[in-house]
Write a structure and sequence with these properties.
By secondary structure, this protein is α+β, with helices and mostly antiparallel strands. It has 9 helices and 15 strands. The protein folds into 3 domains: about 80 residues, Ubiquitin-like (UB roll) (Roll), CATH 3.10.20.90; about 45 residues, no CATH class; about 120 residues, Cathepsin B, Chain A (Alpha-Beta Complex), CATH 3.90.70. It has a 6-stranded mixed sheet, with helices on both faces. Helix 3 runs antiparallel to helix 5 and helix 3 packs across helix 6. The two termini are about 30 Å apart. Hydrolase that can remove conjugated ubiquitin from proteins and may therefore play an important regulatory role at the level of protein turnover by preventing degradation. One of its GO terms (molecular function) is cysteine-type deubiquitinase activity. This is Ubiquitin thioesterase OTU.
């Protein structure tokens, strides 16, 4: 079967057997594709799941399927993120959006706009997206979201087993408390219950949402997140189409056309290649420490400066 392995420097497509062990896949990546980094785990699927890079389980048993994309997570430390640019190419800078650039859909039922609000492209995007929807602030620390997740897992070892978490419970709790660790399905499920909201998470490729909520006590309010494959953003309503978040509403008690508008907005984002254009990896030059965007940014920097050592931010 073919799988796509994505690193800060780019992606490779591998033809592997489903009975291959995950640890052997890791060795294959390191030896045949010049990955000098110490790989810790892989994130794949939607909602995202993690598997330890040294797991002694087959790709099939880890539920890695043909055509899956695996996002590589590295051990801590700049040196462990080192990779090499192979195609020389200046730094890409993201322009600030104007109102005319904003992805939005007008909702006539309530005379308002459904707008995509971008959150920082970092490893806390899931937590910040939830915080923005619930509080209007892009700061997950105010709600202690990572601590809530870790505490919930620690109090329910019978639910959050090693098989579910992809690693030992205490290891997972230490890991998710770190600001550089990504959140996924486990975190969405826990936070939806704790915050008493329904979370509608749209995968941009699937076009339909996956719902997270307390099935035994369905909440009265809901929020909507957009998932690009490696990044979460938030949908809000605002009667004024503006880049300003003043007047944003990200949590609703009734639908009033929001779900239908969300479907339309997802199609708009698909037409704009949102999944591939707005959430590229950031890499840092390990020689001059400039932060660059994606493989193209690294390649252009290499061409301009002669620097060829890069690490994930």
């Amino acid at each position: 079967m073919k799988i796509k392995v994505k690193t800060p420097a780019g992606a490779v497509i591998l033809d592997v057997d489903e009975e291959m062990l995950v640890r052997d896949l890791t060795q294959l990546i390191k030896t045949e594709h010049r990955q000098q980094a110490s790989i810790a785990s892989y994130k794949f699927g939607y909602p995202p799941r993690n598997v330890n890079a040294s797991a002694e389980t087959s790709l099939r048993d880890a539920e890695i399927r043909s055509n899956d994309q695996l996002l590589v997570s590295y051990e801590n430390g700049a040196d462990s993120h080192t990779t090499t640019a192979t195609v020389p190419q200046t730094r890409l800078e993201k322009a600030q959006p104007t109102p005319s650039d904003l992805p939005y859909v007008y909702i006539p039922e309530c005379s308002t706009n459904l707008i995509l609000r971008n959150v920082p492209d970092d490893n806390s995007c899931l937590f910040n997206a939830i915080s923005l929807a619930v509080t209007g602030s892009i700061d997950w620390r105010k709600l202690h979201l990572r601590e809530i997740v870790a505490n919930t897992i620690e109090c329910a070892p019978e639910i959050y087993s090693e098989a579910i978490l992809g690693r030992l419970l205490q290891e997972y709790c230490l890991w998710i408390r770190k600001s550089e660790s990504w959140g996924g399905a486990i975190e969405l499920g826990i936070l939806s219950k704790h915050l008493n909201v329904r979370i509608e998470a749209y995968d941009i490729d699937l076009s339909s949402p996956i719902t997270f909520q307390d099935e035994n006590n369905p909440p009265d309010e809901f929020i909507v997140l957009i998932y690009s494959g490696i990044h979460y953003d938030t949908l809000v309503t605002n009667k004024v189409l503006s880049t300003s978040r003043i007047g944003d509403v990200g949590k609703w008690a009734s639908d009033e056309g929001i779900s239908e508008a969300a479907q339309k907005l997802v199609k708009l984002l698909q037409s704009r290649d949102y999944a591939t254009n707005t959430t590229k990896f950031r890499v840092r030059c390990l020689e001059c420490y400039e932060v660059l965007v994606g493989e193209m940014g690294a390649s252009r920097h290499a061409n301009r400066t002669g620097h060829v050592r890069f690490g994930e931010v």
